[in-house]
Amino acid sequence: MNAVAELSPEEIHEAVFTMGRQARTAAHALAILSTRQKNAILHSMAAELREQSAEILKENTKDLAAGEANGLSGAMLDRLRLDEARLETVAGGVEQVAGLADPVGEILDERTRPNGIRIQQIRVPIGVIGIIYESRPNVTSDAAVLCLKSGNATILRGGSEAIHSNRAMAAALQEGGEKEGLPPHSIQLIPFTDRESVKEMASMDRYLDLIIPRGGKGLIETVVSLARMPVIKHYDGICHVFVDEAADQVMAGEITVDAKTQKPSVCNALETLLVHEAVAGEFLPTVAKRLAARQVELRGCPKTRAILGDQVVAANEEDWGTEYLDYILAIKVVSSGAEAIAHINQYGSQHTDCIVTKDGATAERFLREVDSACVFHNVSTRFSDGEEFGFGAEIGISTDKLHARGPMALRELTSYQYRVRGAGQVKDPLS
Question: Distance between CA 332 and CA 273 in Å, rounded?
Fold first, then answer.
């Protein structure tokens, strides 16, 4: 199907729902594959990516040319660009997933009831997962192989900027997998860019068990507003570091600078620094100097400005709830740990928040009372990541509270099933 073809709403509906029906059939077949079979499929996928590298790179040049013509920024074009080295990294990532432990079939709980019934709680695939994402073509591979390893069929809907790259990569993954027994239609990419396709996916609760949107806040809000099935998401990454009065200030400075400047454009980067008033006069001038050397703009509360003067722009109410994704940092001086916790719970996005302190009791209170997916003690927020957690790979970060929270890896792409075995037990035996 031509990526630029004009399709009617009826044609889009039929195409997407056909993919849904095919994915449901594929999901039943995927659920019974053994770990050995899935790993063989993954290795074959990696080999096919290498085999078809010339074709994938040729398609990628089409996306790059279109991006330049449409005025994409240099940073966006770099995210879009593939070359031999990047494609080899993608293929290596597929092989890495093959080496991860398979969560499917894990026994989560088992017990025998007094009446002799034996109950097991077992990890099983979710079924069919829809992934809606923007820009980067490597997400096509990441999402497809993580879903495959966890026994799920997937329907992918990438951004228009990478449509040619995505189509070529998804085709290579499916074709390579089929050489080792991957069921047909296990990996499907919506091959056109009409926004109507997102609406159709969101309404397809008969065939789609879960949607995971990866992209900007606008995309995620749109998906959530339309979806008739569960959505795993996070809107913002408004991450905090609280420097307690009992903090090791050298450590606090290292964590602050790393969390803000190591890669400011990601969701686990620091956006607001909270400092206890007992140490603010000593700590802030030192850390401000280091941040200034990295060209970080500071926006502070009145107490912060009283200490740092003209180095700081006056912060307003909006700053406390802003994810800058840039070299900008909001700073607030607080009178206590309780005030820091209250500030985070009010303005944060339930992503990742850190306390720096040598006081164990204060740290435990922070860990217990901050309502975020990831709560750190003396660790940079940049470690809020599936690979850093030892999961091997992740499909995203969730700030939801049901099913999955924090970095989402293979286990979070499964559900569970109760398997109950007996010997003829009945609830109300006839007399």
Answer: 6
> Max alpha carbon distance in the chain (Å)?
88
Helix, strand, coil fractions of the chain, as percent rounded to 5: 45, 20, 35
Whole-number Å distance between alpha carbons of 18 and 287: 57
Q: What is the pTM of this model?
A: 0.87
Tell whether 179 and 259 lie within a shared domain: no
pLDDT tens-digit series, residues 297-329: 999 999 999 999 999 999 999 999 999 999 999
First vs last Cα of the chain: how many Å apart?
66
Q: Kindly state the tokens that stand for 345.
A: 């719970």
Q: Which among 407, 353, 409, 359 is positioned nearest to 381, based on CA atoms?
A: 353
β-strands 239-243, 270-276 pairing: parallel
Residues 287 and 354 placed together within one structural domain of the fold: yes
Task: Write out the two tokens for 337.
Answer: 């740990």
Q: Kindly state whether residues 278 and 364 are assigned to the same domain.
A: yes
For 120-146, the pLDDT digits (tens) are: 999 999 999 999 998 789 999 999 999
Q: How many whole angstroms separate alpha carbon 48 and alpha carbon 40?
A: 12
Q: Can you give the CATH number for the domain in which 304 is found? A: 3.40.309.10
Asked which of 363, 383, 403 is the last residue of a domain, the reply is 383
Residue 20, both tokens: 């849904």
One-letter amino acid of 126: I
Residues 157-171 as b or e (16 or more Cβ within 10 Å = b): bbbbbbbbbbbbbbb
Do 384 and 374 meet the contact criterion of CB atoms below 8 Å apart? yes
